Amino acid sequence: MLLLAASIVISLSIGSAALPISEVWGILIDQLPWLGDGSAKWDESSVAIVTQVRLSRILLAVLVGACLSLAGAGFQGVLRNPLADPFTLGVASGCSVGAAFLILFGYQTIVGIWTIPVVAFGTGMITLIVVFALARARGAMNVETLILSGVIVQAFLGAFVSFMVSMSSSVVNEIMFWLMGSISGRGWEHVKVVLPFLIVGFPVLIRFAQPLNLFVFGERHAAHLGVQVERTKLIVLLTSTLLTAVAVSMTGVVGFVGLVVPHLVRLLVGSDYRLIVPLSAIGGSIYLVWADTLARTALSPKEIPLGVVTALIGAPFFAYLLYRRKTKQGGAI
Amino acid sequence: MIEARELTRTIDGNLILDALTFTMEHGGMYGIIGPNGAGKSTLLRLMSGVDAPTSGELTLEGKAASAYGRKELARWVAVLQQGGLDPANFTVQEVLSLGRYPFQNWLGEEKRDTGPLIDRALEQMGLLHLAERKIDRLSGGERQRVALAKVMVQEPRLLLLDEPTTFLDIGYQVGLLDTVKRWQQEERLTVVAVLHDLNLAAHYCDKLLVLHEGRLVAFGAPAEIIETELIDRVYGTRAVVVPHPVTGVPQLLLQPSAESGAVETRG
């Protein structure tokens, strides 16, 4: 938590207009109504940069990172599949189809910003069902087959989204950035959309953390110990997809966050989901704040899409996990 | 304790269990035996309430097994599955505390201090020195002991065992059943075990229930069940039944068929 706070503040001070950390702190504290005395101690443009531009963007990174990591932890737990994540399962792409449709054809202005996550959730769920149907052979789901199905569906849906982009009359450049995953140009209204979903999704996953621990030994085993297996699976899958949907609606497909973060958390604290779930949320926030800081500063003033940064980190990580699975076949999560 | 009336189960149109009727008393140790595909594991799954019967009734203490809430049932019925625990990145100690799940709130907490309970189970199963070891670093036999310790921690009144000795060396097989038997007698547990090995079943069980092609063929004390005719009818092999030289319990000696050339009859 402290690490997260520190990351936010440091990241706030990094940018094309450099501000010292002390000034960032000062501006932040001034914003708190019970501390700020209203006197203009700070340069107005600095205040604007911190509160208007950077703070909202960084908070969005915090929330989206938490959403994606939680979704990844949820998928991994309930599917007993260490390679599962919103991106590798194709759910993120599924959500992006719904979101892209609304954004590209301009329906969002008519029905409001809230409809995007809802529609994205719908297409995400449909995608998940299709991926499961592809992967399931005689009731059993193999780890690799499931991911393969996810990748196939993702390739198809990716092409479909590109097709929609080429058909639309919108400014293609802007859409391309969204497609590659980015939180540039997002503001407070986006933060306000993500927050309620996270406030609902987070406790739900915490509530099911202990049943997820029992899933490690198999579904039957969990049932014998008193877990309502079908209900648990349904709720965790729905929640994870919902969190993915809202994240994708705001930032496009930012891949591999839900894969990398829960695994790093596992390396640190072990396999207990009561720790993995909350720490993944915090870890995901930290991870995405830094990834986004890197995205906007590495080649400043040019910006790298956030999805590119996370993929450059995430894909090799995925390869490493796959390799490790191969070397100790049948190994535990 | 357990009552089945006309208990029938079909899976995808195939009749797996055909109108079973029997009663199992409190505090007994029962064995379910029969050839592969006779429906033994299906019967055990109905008893554990995970599956519901297609028709007929199976009641546990007067209430249909499938009508209990999952957590409610797990507070007094424990199941030891075939093959034991899958490897996982948990320590033995953590696995045992997961065994308390039916009594825990959503945070995994319980009012009662379960430390002594877990320690006793570790001690009984000879696992104290492995308490901090991750279970994916244990051998198959050790994992099976952990699995049994976990159901002990659950403090059940009814224990269901699904071929608990499969994949174990003979030393572990006897050791495991010894432990179960001792525990059963001390705590007055009811135990129902699906067993493959008829000789072990004859030794440890008070009564044996014989299934053949989904039907109940016989239900009685080992001395009534383990006899040449019945074994031939159910398993399709002629075996010799002799009393165990030490315990006197009927034991089977398998016998190759005469035309195989493996037998030279003596005298």
UniProtKB/TrEMBL annotation, chain B:
InterPro entries: AAA+_ATPase, ABC_transporter-like_ATP-bd, ABC_transporter-like_CS, P-loop_NTPase. Keywords: ATP-binding, Nucleotide-binding, Translocase, Transport. It holds the Pfam family ABC_tran. Gene3D superfamilies: P-loop containing nucleotide triphosphate hydrolases (3.40.50.300). The keyword Acyltransferase does not apply. One of its GO terms (molecular function) is ATP binding. The keyword Transport applies. Residues 2-238 form the ABC transporter domain. This is ABC transporter ATP-binding protein.
